[in-house]
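Q: I'm a student working through a structural biology exercise. My instructor gave each of us a protein and asked us to get a predicted structure, then write a short paragraph describing it. Mine is Cytochrome P450. I'm not confident about reading structure output yet, so if you can add a plain explanation after the tokens, that would really help. Here is the sequence I was given:
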Amino acid sequence: MYYHLWKHQRKTLNTSFNKRILESFIPWFDKCATKMVNEMKRELNLSQVNVMQHCGRCTMDMVFGSTIGTDILDDPVASKFVPIIETVSGLVAGRFTNILKYPDFLYELTSDYKLEMKYRKEFYQFINTTIDKQKRIIAMESVDKIVDQEDDIGYKKPQIFINHLLKGKRAGQPFTDLEILEQSLTIILGGNDTSALAICNLLTLLAMYPEIQEKDRPPHAFKPFSVGARYCIGKQYAMIGVKVVLVHLLRNFRFHTDLEYEKMEFKFDVQLSAQFTFQLMQSSAGVRIDKMWWLWLFLVLAAVGLLHCWILQRHRFAQHLPNMQPYYPIIGNGQLFMGKSRVQLFNVLMEPFREFGGWFKIWLGPKLVLCTSHPDIMNAVLTHPECLEKPFFYDFVKLEHGIFAGHYHPWKTQRKALNPAFNTRILNSFIPVFAECSKLMVHNMEKSVGNGALSLSIFPFISKCTLEMVCGTTIGCDVLEQPGKETFIENVDRCFELVAKRMLNIHHYIEVLYGFTKDCIEESERRTSCYRFFESVIEKAKARVQSGSEVPDECVDYKRPQIFADQLLTVRHNGNPFTDIEITHNIYSMIAAGNDTTALQVTHTCLFLAMFPDIQERAYREVMDVFPDPEQDITLEDLKKLTYMERVIKESLRLAPSGPNIARQTMQDIEIADLSIPKDSLIVMSIFSMHRRKDVWGPDADVFDPDRFLPERSVGRNGNAYVPFSAGSRNCIGGRYAMLGMKVMLSSILRRLRLRSSLQMRELQFRFDLTLKLESDYFVTVEKRVQTETPMLAIVLVLFALCILYYYTFVVRTRYAKDIPSAKPCYPLIGNGLSFMEKSPAKLFENVVQPFTQFDKWFKVWLGPQLLLCTSHPKLAESVLSHPKCLEKPFFYSFVQLEQGILTHNNWKRYRKVLSPAFSTGKVNNALPTLIACADDLISKLESKVEKTSTVSLAPLLSECTLNMIFSTTLGANVVEQLEAKNILRNLDSLFQMISARAINVLYHCDWIYKHTNNYKTESNTRAACYRAVDKILASRRKALENAAYEAEDTPAMLDRLLTIKDDGPLTDTEIVHNIYSIIGAGYDTAAHAIGHACLFLAMHPVVQANLYQEVCDVFYNADEPITEQKLKQLTYMDRVLKETLRLAPAGATVGREAQENVTIEGQFIPRGTTIVVSLFALHRRKDFWGDDADQFDPDRFLPERSEARPSYAYMPFNTGSRSCLGSRYAMLTMKVILTMIVRAFQLRTKMTMAELKFRFDIALKQEHGYLIEFERRTQHT
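A: Happy to help. First, here is the predicted structure for Cytochrome P450. I'll explain a few features afterward.
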């Protein structure tokens, strides 16, 4: 047992061996010893009694009774385990003396292991049954507890060890069932044998020395139970048991023997006599030591030790690198790859690549393998001129004369000669072959499917197609004419599997040993079958080329497919033609590797598309846009237009690269990534792991998202992190060939078939092989895409359905609102949609606000078939927003796509509870220095601009300032650089415009329609750009928190709370990200435009501005006096200025709610699911509540004497109820700080009047033309 685990368990179990508990066992020991003596007396020939057997069974009964409460000798069920325990003990002892059985993987191959496991399983079941029985007894005792007169435990009856385990705890946690089982077995197996042998040995010594002679000994020379912290925990237990047994034996028998101490060889004869004499037979327990055997063992161990030291010395350059664990001398990590399934092999191999970021090492026996999945290291290896050799295990493929597995020097000349065979013109000539094969594949799939939908294993169809394509372009033959094509595919797949298996079996590396295995025989047979399949075809190709004359390149007809075999037979490398073996190996390399990799990649892509129907439909639409005619020929120009299809393929290659791992061998001593690597070192790189690194691809690295390859989302990503076809000089020669073939095949499939699958990404189980494959078959539900002309009856039915829909939607479903007036104009089906479509933002705002000013209480707006119940009446608004059944956000909030954040998620209560402490008064006040620093930077930029021109557009500067504030206080990040801030602001502004435009446009409510619009593309691009900006901060903050010395409550950063929250479980990455974006998006924009409006109103009203400036001067006696919390509280007039600003221009002009249940509000019945819209903008300007001057800017209307008669619900700039604005205190403090510093530094002027204000429709209320204000520096502060 490992130290830390032992330490906690030992501390808990020490109390199980205290004096009172041990004394409770004495009656039981006495009973067992008495039974043993009586059985010995009943022996017919007392001089031949096997004392070891009797003592062993006695101590076994003692140990079983005190450990699990079972009388094993009298219990018919338990007694059968006596020989089992003896057998297991013998097997374990035998393994101790056989060094070859030390490694687990070798011992698992023996018959001893199988027998031991069989007996252990039976014994474990018995112990587990006993444990369950004791659990029930303990549970019953806890309900009806009988208290003994002495204490709660009751030491009068034996305290069974297993009960202490069931009741005890270690490190505050109860023992697991497995720990209880293992501790019980430890006591049983260890206590039985040692006690029995101690008794027998003691009897022998007593027989030899009738008179006990005492000798002086050093105090530490006698340690029979070990010494130190890990001494035997049961020593007192053993002493008591031995004493009890010896008392019974000595009371009944006399011992004598002729054996001499000096002649003892662990085999003795003893006679016991009382009335009778016993002959003890201890030959079964004795062992005769062969001194020569130990000498040989020493020599073997010494040789192994020297070999291990030599191996470590030879590879000392990598001694500082982390090791894959567990590691053992000589065999290294080899045991990890033996006896595993193919899925387990893959997972075991990928685990260290995920664990270690840079270099690490794996030991395949004595062979060191350097491994990595770091993009920069992999690129350095793959592009290094001295890392172009393939390692020895590529020889297992038996294609060493081809470019796939060939050694460096022949490969170099062959690659140079064959590169022209894959140029663009030759690849273009293959397109007709690809198209014809794909057409046949789809036809066969349609034929299998029939008219319905059918679950098919698509790999056989795709594999046959790729075989046709590869053979047609490689050797110019139609394999449909060749018998045995299915067998060929099966043989290639099995050969690859056997080669991969050999790579991880160290003892198969030696060719002589491998030749005697079944795998070798099977591989040879299948390889021979593959060779025979193409022998005649290759001979025909040779004859065809030899019979014709060479044609100059400029005369080649590139409209015809340029066969690869013809290229091999005509080109030269190193001035010589390709030999027959080189031709054969290269052709087989192209056919076997090309067919398998391409087929798997197309299959994986189809599976991903089936799992993500929205991506499939988007790819289908693109294909139909490019190929509207089903019979249209496929050309290279058309394929280039399939940009989304290309991203789909790239994402498929990222998540499931056909070649998951690649290897290189160094040809000279080199240095890469600060590691000096000697010649002939092996380097293995995992493309699979690199393509899923979260530090490169983000937290969603395991998600299928083709848009991650959009140019704007690829900016800043490591360019070396994506190498599906390897990199450097030895990259895949057929990369472009594969991409071309996959595009043609996938286009053909999507044009005619629809794919579906219920599989989830987490359910995909890959297996270890030369190429990446799933363990299960690739079953996908396939159905035809039916394209037929619409008959007249269908048109009539559609019109009739529309009429029914209209009647149900506009009459039946909204009967409750029939007496509520409707906004005009309103048309059937589209409702008021025309009023909001294709309007400028300013005109759109006017159209939205106009009915709120027209109707006093309720009115209704139709967004297509969607009814919105609207109001600006303060009482109605307060009733809706405060109603416990009206807390859900309506459907258009989902357009923000932050569905797991506080803004829209139905779990908002938990998020609000988590985030509320971050916006408490104390936390907000703690952020004051940060706010002041950002405001100082704003004033500096304003001063710089005022020096050049007095009129300044305030919006960009305010937005940048509030963005820095929100980033610093919310994310704990430093101030954003100016250029980066401008990009973020531009993208956020564009994103908000797209979202608000979609919310009001009924046609855009349908995802399918919206995804075809330019707005969608703009929104996707800007959203991706915004995510990238914050993702970097999230990653750095998460890393900082791992080493943080403070609690999340001690930091003002809200992100820290989200990352460290533990209540009800930690938040997922998606929840953290969506909540961060919700706070950033809502926080910076609203505060910036509220301050912009305040400055604009002050510039329009010089008297108000002068009063405010005077108050600032009264509170701050000089211009350099610092801003403090106490000083800000004294700015009462500023409070009124800000309140009046938020009344006339509330940041959130409109609020939406959805009724969660049927409710009645102020007499109006509102059914469940109804969307309710409240206009705070119109509510704050109602003349029946605010007077005839409601549209004028007058801060004094918030004086207490003028506010007494006004209801409180007439003013709600931050919303009201449970879902009111969480950051209202933060926003007010931000606005106060910025406005104070602006008023202290500048005088504001503008020629604009209140009547000229033009608001625009957006998520936050904004001015159409920004905030153009004339700034003048204040020269003195008096």
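A: Here are two points you could use in your paragraph. The longest strand covers residues 367-372. The chain has three domains: 1-142+158-252, 369-547+557-712+728-783, 891-1043+1051-1273. It's a good idea to check both against the output above yourself.
Q: Great, thank you!
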